[in-house]
Amino acid sequence: MTIKNIVIVGGGTAGWMTAAALSRLSAARTVNVTVVESEAIGTVGVGEATIPHFVQFNKLLGLDEAELLSAVQGTFKLGIQFVNWGAQGASYFHPFGDYGYQFDGLSFHHIWHMMRRAGDPRPLHIFNAETMAAESRKFARIGPDHREDLPPINYAYHLDAGRYARFLRTHSEKRGVERVEGRISDVALDGETGFVTSVTLDDGRVIEGDLFVDCSGFRGLLIEQTLKTGYEDWTHWLPCDRAVAIPSARKGPAMPYTRSMAWSAGWQWTVPLQQRNGNGHVYSSAYMGQDEALDILLANLDGEPLAEPNHLRFVTGRRKKFWNKNVVAVGLAAGFMEPLESTSIHLVATAVSKLVSVLSLDAITPTQEAAFNRLTAKEYARIRDFLILHYKVTDRTDSPFWDYCRTMDIPDTLEEKLALYRHNGHVFREEDELFTETSWIAVMMGQGMMPEKCNPLAQTFAGPGVVREIGEIERSIAYLVRNLPTHDAFVQQYCPATPQPAAAGC
Q1: Residues 411-415: what's their mean pLDDT?
Q2: 3-state DSSP call for residue 53?
Q3: Maximum distance among all alpha carbons in the chain?
């Protein structure tokens, strides 16, 4: 079957990211790309924090960074501050960049751990440029070619998801993508193959397609309601199943980082934009009611609420298939993992990238479907394990929720990772998994988990030469941060917000 018409069901962030990536095909008149969406259907609009891979995704689309950030009221993100996770009153920072640098292939944290056991009082985080810049609320775009003795600054964005979707819509329509307004009332299937052949709108219009991308959100209009694909429920590992979101007025300078503050049955996010803050409380309905969750959120806002609260329900997990017949699920239609590490938009980007990579326009084959499903399932599982880590490695005993999380059984893949680290600080990164060694170290050490022994290779670096070199790392980072502009000053110079109408659902 030749693919001539690709239909994207649903707009929002997922739909228009998909359309933007496929717009190259549309611009070349290779295929027709159509987005079917309805203004009457709201979007979730809570995924406003991203990770560095997202920066590269937008570069691949050919978007101008400053123009994009101005349009989406964006700010820069150096990592995530976690408060009350390992223990109440404790905090740590998960940075995007590395700690120090490798010594002949040995990761810096091994050297640090050896020195710590020998009595060196310096904390690990002072050897990370992103953490130190975040503490000072400073930022600049500094790449690896800036100065050899200074580390680069790794960053992502905070953005208004609704404005981002509109920005991509304009980008995509200029490149030939067609948008059709309307709600879908019926889906037609081929009686022989079971493939989706068309969708019918409320007004009777029929939109035919060869390949359909389901971006319809939690309901999964095509992947689940039509094809009955099935869902793998991970609530027993990630028990949060509710959220309440609300924007608030921003007071004071914008943080160049996301904040995650744990409460008795979940956690609260704060995402700083140029004109406001995005806030939400993710919680478990088994341990907390809706009214209590809202009260906690309202009591801990940095500024006045700017809208009515948006209550959300979800089931953490994934579809049993992401590609089923001629339907590919992207975004919330594919699965959901709470935005603890800002992976929602990332999973959209990687899904679209895999789709573009395996897509051939002359056929839809079982091999394509199997490869896409296998790779995506691995990606979800590895991100899942990293999120479980935050709940499992804790000393909190103050609520039934944390008692459950601390004592729950975890996947064997995560158990193995923790055991290897516990033994001598080793973190094994499998293939191309998203989270780096630095990420795992930041969370495990930040939440109080330390290796029982030193890596034996670290002992080969004991001596005054290494001590001097580590001192130079500390001084270089301190020099860099001292000379950075404030985050607000850089944003106002580089990408001041463009006034736009308020985004629905955000």
Answers
A1: 97
A2: helix
A3: 78
Token pair in block for residue 334: 């594919």
Helix/strand/coil (H, E, C) string of 360-395?
CCCCCCHHHHHHHHHHHHHHHHHHHHHHHHHHHCCC
Determine the 3-state secondary structure of 22 from DSSP. Answer: helix
Cβ of 24: how many Cβ atoms within 10 Å? 16
Contact 146, 479 (CB under 8 A): no
Domain ranges of the chain: 5-42+161-231+319-381
Q: What is the pLDDT of residues 123-180, one digit of tens each?
A: 999 999 999 999 999 999 986 656 666 788 999 999 999 999 999 999 999 999 999 9
User: Quick one: fold of 5-42+161-231+319-381?
Assistant: FAD/NAD(P)-binding domain (3.50.50)
Let me know the angle formed at the C-alpha of 380 by 377 and 384, rounded to the nearest 5 degrees. Answer: 135
Q: What per-residue confidence (pLDDT) applies to 504?
A: 36
Q: What is the pLDDT of residues 252-286, one digit of tens each?
A: 899 999 999 999 999 999 999 999 999 999 999 99
- Assign 7 to helix, strand or coil: strand
CB-count burial class (<10 Å; 0-12, 13-18, 19+) for 356: middle
Taking 3-state DSSP, the helix, strand and coil percentages for the chain, each rounded to the nearest 5, stand at: 40, 20, 40
Q: DSSP readout, 315-353?
A: --EEES-SEETTEEE-GGGTEE--GGGS-HHHHHHHHHH
Catalytic residues: 77
Residue 429 near residue 418, CB atoms below 8 Å: no
Residues in the chain: 506
Q: List the one residue out of 78, 99, 118 whose CA is nearest residue 473.
A: 99
